[in-house]
Design goal:
Strand order of the largest sheet: 1-2
Number of strands: 2
Distance between the termini: 32 Å
Number of helices: 4
Strand content: under 5%
Radius of gyration: 20 Å
Order of helices and strands: HHEEHH
Helix content: 25-40%
Structural class: mainly alpha
Mean pLDDT: 81
């Protein structure tokens, strides 16, 4: 079964939708901050941000992740988009 082609009206509607949302796209000082550099993405399951800076008895709980924060972009205001999904769901969203 062949896929149906989009009509000119459907294409125009999609382009209008994208134009309306242009102000919502990434931008600002951090946009393209890694351009031309090596990029490492660390995705951790079931880790809340506070744990990276947490100490117990003066000892860091996560010293390696904490050390990386000095030379990285750290996104701490993230909305969980998997709800009650599985680990693989999170992998598909990144």
């Amino acid at each position: 079964m062949a896929a149906a082609s989009a009509t000119a009206a459907q294409i125009d509607e999609a382009l209008a939708w994208l134009r309306e949302r242009a102000p919502l796209r990434a931008g600002g000082d951090d946009f393209a901050a890694a351009r031309g550099a090596n990029l490492i993405v660390v995705q951790v399951e079931s880790l809340q941000d506070f744990a990276v800076d947490f100490t117990v008895g003066g000892q860091e709980v996560m010293p390696h992740l904490r050390r990386w924060t000095g030379d990285s972009l750290r996104f701490t205001n993230v909305t969980d988009q998997t709800s009650e999904g599985r680990t693989s769901d999170a992998e598909f969203t990144t």
